[in-house]
Amino acid sequence: MKKIIITLMLLPILSFSQECYTVTEVSTQIEMEEISKNRIIFGIKQIMEDVISDKYELCMDGKPVKVVVQSIEAPQTGIELGPWTKVSKKTIVTLLLYIDGKEIEVVGKAKSTVESTLIDLNNDKLSFNKTTFSSAVKKAIERIKF
What we know:
Layout: H1 2-15, E1 20-28, H2 37-55, E2 57-58, E3 63-73, E4 76-81, E5 84-99, E6 102-117, H3 130-142
Helix pairs in contact: 2-3
């Protein structure tokens, strides 16, 4: 009798359990001399797991999530008047995700604007900075509807 009562008490809890996901693979098609693929992959995996864990459970045997970085763009616009400069950089990240057998393409954008006098915005070789890159990735991932 006790087993039946315990089972009946646990039944509502079991029926409302959250879905469980695991990030199985992160890959990139981007070739950049300025930053290694491993750094991009590691950062995106961490962000993906963080965003998923806000809404769902993370577990080893959960539904697989695969992420492919398709493109990273960083167009720059600016105005220069003598020693005064205003530069605006936009980082655009396109991700392809495979979740529950579905293929989802998401785009995230982040913008940074700097007004300065005689200083550089960034390393000219690296077309984006880490903060705007991670912000663009997070915005892309947050658009996903699981």
